[in-house]
Amino acid sequence: MGKISPSILSADFTRLADDIEKVEKAGADYIHIDVMDGHFVPNITIGPMLVEAVRRITDLPIDVHLMISDPDRYIDAFVEKGASIISIHTEAVTHLHRTIQYIRDKGVKASLALNPATTLDCLEYVLPDLDMVLLMTVNPGFEGQKFIPAMIPKIKQLRDMINKQGLNIEIEVDGGIKPETIEMVSSAGADVFVAGSAIFYSNNYNSIIHKMRENMRI
What we know:
Oligomer: single chain
Order of helices and strands: EHEHEHEHEEHEHEHH
CATH topology: TIM Barrel
Distance between the termini: 6 Å
Strand content: 15-25%
Number of strands: 8
Number of helices: 8
Helix content: 25-40%
CATH class: Alpha Beta
Strand order of the largest sheet: 1-8-7-6-5-4-3-2
Number of domains: 1
Shape: globular
């Protein structure tokens, strides 16, 4: 079965604990936390302290997406506060292999995130060292954007790469994921689906997550 990773960027921070409890009861597999620095992407969000707060609320894996410049400076902090998975952007890292190994040496799953216009060539020498690849299906920085259909062939190409090498790597997709788009991205080969506004802006988290699972083609 595919995995649902609700992005709390779209949650109501005045009742965050309640929102996280509701998506957990509705069947969420991960909790996704988007970290933005106002430099790598044109928005500023949250940091390690929120990861610590979320860890106190839930035992679900915390899926941290670092949309920041020079992420090496902050990996230790996010690990210490309870991150289970850390995604770094290939576009933001100078010594990619070293950073991936550092994350894994900390006992955390390592994920590499790629912006929509970034090709899969950057994975050639690091793919076996990864636990996950996060393909952005919108340009990162803001919630509520429309899914970019041109990303479907990219998902398929990545799935073929992973399968040909016999690797056990999850493909995560982030951006514009909702019941209406999850069928085509799951059919293309994605495993993990980040959804923010589709879940948290709805009146019934359980209904939306159930509908997303119904529409998966895995």
